Every structure is written in structure tokens, then in C-alpha cells.
Amino acid sequence: MPATSKNNRDKGILSNIDWVTLFIFVVLVSMGWMSVCGASYNLDEGTKLLYFSARSGMQLVWIFSSFVLGAIILYIDDRLIESLSYIIYIAFMVLLFVTPMLAHDIKGSLSWIKIGGFSIQPAEFAKFATALCVAKVIASFNLDLSRWRDLIICSTLVLLPMGLIIMQKETGSALVYLAFFLMFYREGMIGSILFAGAAAVFYFVVGVRYAEVPLWEIPQISTGEFLVLAAIHIFSSCMMWVYTSLRKPFLQVLLFGMGAYILAVLYAKYLIPFNASWVLWIVLAATVSYLFVLAVRKQLWSYALIALFAIGSTGFFYSVNYVLNDVLQPHQQTRIRVLLGLEDDPKGAGYNVIQAKIAIGSGGLKGKGFLNGTQTKLKYVPEQDTDFIFCTIGEEQGFVGSALVLVLFLVFILRLMHLAERQPLRFGRIFGYCVLSIFLFHVFINVGMVLGLTPVIGIPLPFFSYGGSSLWGFTILLFVFLRIDAARNRLQH
């Protein structure tokens, strides 16, 4: 390549790179290093923060190497990255498949591969490979995610790494892949699928939390079962209103059902006690039958899909106990029960969250200052420099510092959304939304589990949690997108 051409190329990259996003990245990484220092600080080692024997010193190595990695990515031709999408995806799927065979058991997880004196977690890099492949497939074949066939193709690409990671007993890392459905929604997936996901969460939480609670002091009726079955009926009725133009069937189904189960509860309360949930079963069966009849008569297959939603919802609800008791690991079961208030385990599963809350609360408004956190310094919070590092921020920097970190993440994600929307090609936009969805999921769940708002599933806080795999994985995601964005002017001309 002639020197002039190379200089123009370098100048183009530097002039087109989004420096705002890059600046936020540097700030977050710097704040992350300070948090690792506070979380890993050992009274016996004094102030040896820069020693490689300390986690703070090792984190500097990961940070420096991530900067180098990011710089290298910026000088790779974006067209080469796109052309290798399928190869990268296949390579990482093979790696995920063999990981349990090569990994060492670490706290029951088979997700870490040792290379020399280091360990890497392929699942962290597979997110990048999946994002590339999904973006390439949708853009290359002009898929319309409002069509079921196209949606199934893309969902398969996402569910495959999820399944392989679950085989490694890393359920938390696998759940991150659900973030891709936010991108699917942006690219045309019908909103009812996201609603179905939210409904599934409702069924799970209400069904498990109130399974043993009698409704209105009627021992034969489970509050959880009754409320979930009633919700399925109401949701199905409301979907008739939203997805069809016929209002009369909606009112008929809704009012008939509500009247039936209200009368059933009153009968069980004041006349003969019985399990009124059986009435709801009959109502749901009648509703589903009516929907299928309408689908045939009026040739409106939306009614059939609503009926399938009701059947699927019911099947999901009655599979909850099996999943909770027979599929999830014992420690995961306990975490969910503690979160839902079914168990009190202050010395076990609930210990991390309790201590994290204490640490955050002790920070007050302005915090105790850098390296002055007593809860973290005395190691009361397990995993305080990895999954629970946000408690270190709360203790040392207080409410002000914690709020600043969350605001920076918010600005960061909104900036990624802006970059995604300005992409001239669909591939760049889709990959951008994959990146921001992954970051959003990580931040929301990680902060939520530290505050006791979401289950503890063990995922890192981007740019903050200690470790090379997560930092490199997030760096690759971000800088590949920045490289794609830097080429937008060439594509526009």
C-alpha cells in the first residue's frame, strides 16, 4: 500500500471514530480500576496496588492489553470483519462445545479454560461472535423478523450458544443472550413476543411466590395458581382487542370469564369450599375452543395464535415447579427462593446480597473515600471485586459516586443507540443494537442483583469487574462497532 494511501486511511479512522464513546469507555475503565483496588485491597499488603501479585496490579495488565486490542481492531478493515462473521461464529460454537471437556471445575462451573498461567472464559467472547453472525445473516438475506420463519432462523443462532453455555453450568452467562431479543424487536419482531416473555416472568414469580398461600382464606385454592390462570385468561382476552378488529368477541370472552371465576370464589367462600381453579380451567378451555372456532369462521389466524399463547402460557406455568426443582442447580433454587421471600438464608444464598446492601448503605451520600471501605476491606462481601463490585462503588464513593456510574452507563448506552441509528447499512445498525442490548442487560442485571432486585446469576459489570475475559470481551464488542461506525462515510459516498 502506498504511503499516501496509508496516511489517508489512518487519518480517516482517527477523524471518523466516535471520540465521545471512546472517552466514556476510558472513564469507565479508569473508575473500574479504582473499584478493583478498593475491592481487592488487603491490609496485610499495604499499598502494593501496582504489584502483579495484587488483583489491582493484574487488572492494570488487562486494561493496558484491552487498549492495545482496541487500537488493533480500529485498524482492521471493517469489510474483513464482516466477511469473517460466519467463520468466527462457527469457531466459537465449536469452542463452546468442547469447553466442558477441557475446563477445570471452578465452583461447579465448567466454563474456564486454562492456558499457561491464565484462564479464559469462551462464553464472554461468544457474545461478539453471535452478534456478528446474526447481523450478517439478517442483512445478507434481508430477513424480515415479523415473519415467523425468519425469526426462527435468527432465534436458533442465539439459542445455540445459550444451550452450549448451559451445558457448562453457567446459566447466568447464558441468560445474557436473551438481550438479543431487544435487537430483534428493533428489527421488526412483533411486540407480542416480548409481552409473552414479560408474562412468563409474571407467571413464574406469582406462581412460585404464592403457591402455598390460600386465596381469601380458602385452603383449597392456591393464590398463585388462581391468579396466574386468571391472568392468562385476561391477557388472552386483551390480545383479542389489540390484534383483531372485532371488539364484541373480546367483551364476550372477558366478561364471561371474569363472571365465572368471581362466582366460583364466592361459592367456595360462603357455600361449599372447593378448588375454584378448576372453574378457571374450564373457562380457559372454553376460551381456547372459541378462539379456534373464530379463526376458522372468520379466517383470522390471529385468533389461533392467541389460543396457542393461552395453551403455551398454561403449559409454562405448570412446568415451573419442574424447572425450579429439577432443572436448576440447588444454589440457583435457593437464590430464587431467597429473592422471592420464600426462604431466609442470611448465612447462605442471601449472605452476598445482605452484605452488599450493608456496604452500599454504609457509604452514605459521599462515601468513605478511596480504599477506606470497611466492609470491602475486611472482605465481608464475597466476589466483591467481580460480580458484586458495585457495592464497592457504593461504599467508597457513596450515593454520588454510584449515581455518577449509572449516569455514565446511561449516556454510554444512549450514545451507542445514536451510533446504531446513523449506520448507512443494516449490518452496522443490527450489530450496534446487539452491542447496546448486551451492555444494557449486563448493567441492569448486575446492579439489580447487588441491590436485591434481581436474582443473583453471576454476570460481571462491564469495565468494572475484575478479570481479563470479561474486559476483553466487552472491548472487542465495543471497538468492532466503533470500527464499523468509523467506515460510515465511505459507505455513504
Helix-strand makeup class: mainly alpha
Proportion of strand residues: under 5%
Helix and strand succession?
Answer: HHHHHEEHHHHHEEHHHHHHHHHHH
How far apart lie the N and C ends? 22 Å
Number of domains: 2
Enumerate how many helices there are, as a single number. 21
Query: In angstroms, what is the radius of gyration?
Result: 26 Å
Quaternary structure state of the chains depicted: single chain
Poorly predicted runs of 5 or more residues: none
Strand order of the largest sheet: 1-2
Overall form: globular
Task: Give an account of the 3D structure.
With 493 residues, the protein is mostly helical. The chain folds into two domains: 3-193 and 338-492, no CATH class; 210-328, no CATH class. It has 21 helices and four strands. The strands form two sheets. The protein has a two-stranded antiparallel ribbon. It has a two-stranded antiparallel ribbon with strand order 3-4. The chain is globular. The two termini are 22 Å apart. The relative contact order is 0.13.
